[in-house]
């Protein structure tokens, strides 16, 4: 007996026919994306091969006199304390941005979810800075935080708080903090994740909390915050990944200084690359190690996404 499924008209469609049609649709979809996959294979996969291949060579920017280096470049990278310091700076940068995202980003999202007049406007307003080029943000804040004529120090002096006017981007103890604090203006992305996850919160839970006499602060942090765990995870992993892509904002504001205090891994590679007689094989080896770290983080993100999807299906 040929199995079939019913349709609204009362007729039935054999399962095999349905599977064949679905397979045909999938093949058609793959044919449409085949050109894009070809471009990906040529540019991305070849670039990856070239990166790894070069990491086992000693060569300069001309690639004219390449000699086999074996694993020596990887050994040199792993013995370089500056490499570890740059990765540590990445983690510090990520930690600061994560803290801003899951505190300020969460608070602003919950506040705007109250649906008061103009809430949609302010929601869009917070997202606009996240769409601006990093170079523009870096330039503007470099001018604002400039010691002598910067708007922030001028504001403090106008209030008679001259002792608080600091060299925000020239002091090794303040430069990294200043760069991280600018992340407040980039909370549009975490707000997007929180807004999407807030729609999945069961309103009956909130209504029960209100009936039990819970205040807004308690509802927000003891009930809503734990329920948005999927958004928290996504923001944390995404911020970790973005820290390894970060370059222009920090480089244009501090150049990795002062005294290498803000030198993250991308700036570390750039500074070595532009040095006289730089060994491109060394840069490729360091880049490969950073790529492995990024892929490991991406794998964790994928596992969390699949797990969250299964949890949502089981809850439904």
From TrEMBL:
PROSITE patterns: ABC_TM1
Protein's UniProt keywords contain Transmembrane helix: yes
Subcellular localization, as worded in the UniProt entry: Cell membrane
InterPro entries, A to Z: ABC_transporter_permease, MetI-like, MetI-like_sf
ABC transmembrane type-1 domain residues: 87-301
Subcellular location, principal: membrane
Statement: the UniProt record of this protein carries the keyword Ubl conjugation: no
Annotated Pfam families: BPD_transp_1
BP-aspect Gene Ontology terms: transmembrane transport
Cellular component terms per the entry's GO annotation: plasma membrane
Annotated transmembrane regions: 27-52, 91-114, 121-145, 174-194, 282-302
Topology of this chain in the membrane: Multi-pass membrane protein
Keywords: Cell membrane, Membrane, Transmembrane, Transmembrane helix, Transport
PANTHER family: ABC TRANSPORTER PERMEASE PROTEIN, INNER MEMBRANE ABC TRANSPORTER PERMEASE PROTEIN YCJO
Family that this chain belongs to: Belongs to the binding-protein-dependent transport system permease family.
Descriptive protein name: Sugar ABC transporter permease
Species of provenance: Cohnella endophytica
